[in-house]
């Protein structure tokens, strides 16, 4: 799946044909989520545990296209297993990313808690700094679906409400993994102001939208926050940003 200014079906057909042409020119081609890679080993596709966790949670074409991002998240989550603290995701939507992580790590057997924060009703107007009009985030039944999705895990806490207000109701004292996917620079900064000091040295932050051109405001806000603390976020080709706390 690709996102772009496709004016008509001819533009889409052009892209499809170009990808097929690339396959005749290179030994391996990956195309999805606005990334085209040539001659990469993509070893994670041979990780059967990863593929099982991914495929068992995919529900649509858009989620299917996120496999490169999930590879990053699984790497970060595995690293965070050796770091003191819990896992946090801010911006959950339907829970796809965290479900893959939880299934891959067999999270129910771990001595950690996964905190999932979202309004489950869309981006609140007071935090909608980028003026999103994504009505799918406010679709009926999202919260109930996430509760059902994680019902097999006793150590997953689903916290409904506005970030960062809900941190007062439930938040870990120490964080090993923080995944930020709030689609709002204002909410992202507000979350960091509360959680950054709780991240244990060696803990990982993954910024979902950091490298996407349409999310420039989130990158600028994240850079400003981190620069004042002596950090530089690594932008990776998936569009994510990656940081390991010292």
Q: Which runs of at least 5 residues are low in confidence (pLDDT < 50)?
A: none
Distance between the termini: 36 Å
**Count of domain modules:** 2
| Backbone CA Rg | 18 Å
Question: What fraction of the residues are assigned to beta strands by DSSP?
Answer: 15-25%
Spell out the helices and strands N to C: HEEHHHEHEHEEHEHEE
The global form is globular
Count of alpha/pi helices: 8
Query: Could you name the CATH homologous superfamily of the largest domain?
Result: Vaccinia Virus protein VP39
Q: Kindly report the CATH topology of the largest domain.
A: Rossmann fold
Q: Based on DSSP secondary structure assignment, what is the total number of beta strands?
A: 9
- The helix content is 25-40%
CATH 2nd-level architecture of the largest domain: 3-Layer(aba) Sandwich
Structural class assignment: alpha/beta
Mean pLDDT: 95
Q: Strands of the largest sheet, in order across it?
A: 5-4-3-6-7-9-8
Largest beta sheet, briefly? 7 strands, mixed
């Amino acid at each position: 799946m690709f996102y772009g200014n496709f004016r008509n079906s001819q533009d889409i057909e052009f892209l499809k044909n170009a990808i097929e042409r690339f396959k005749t020119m290179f030994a391996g081609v990956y195309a999805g989520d606005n990334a085209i890679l040539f001659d990469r080993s993509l070893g994670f596709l041979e990780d059967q545990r990863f593929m099982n966790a991914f495929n068992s949670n995919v529900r649509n074409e858009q989620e299917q296209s996120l496999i490169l991002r999930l590879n990053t998240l699984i790497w970060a989550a595995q690293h965070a297993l050796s770091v003191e603290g819990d896992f946090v995701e801010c911006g959950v939507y339907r829970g796809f990313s965290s479900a893959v992580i939880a299934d891959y790590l067999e999270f129910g057997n771990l001595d950690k808690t996964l905190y999932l924060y979202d309004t489950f009703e869309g981006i609140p107007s007071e935090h909608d700094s980028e003026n999103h009009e994504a009505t799918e985030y406010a679709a009926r039944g999202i919260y109930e679906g996430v509760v059902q999705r994680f019902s097999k895990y006793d150590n997953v806490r689903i916290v409904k409400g506005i970030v960062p207000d809900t941190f007062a109701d439930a938040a870990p004292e120490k964080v090993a993994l923080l995944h930020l996917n709030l689609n709002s620079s204002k909410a992202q900064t507000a979350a960091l102001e509360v959680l950054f000091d709780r991240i244990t040295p060696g803990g990982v932050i993954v910024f979902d939208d950091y490298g996407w051109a349409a999310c420039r405001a989130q990158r600028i806000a994240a850079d400003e926050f981190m620069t004042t603390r002596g950090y530089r976020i690594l932008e990776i080709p998936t569009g994510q940003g990656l940081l390991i706390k010292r």
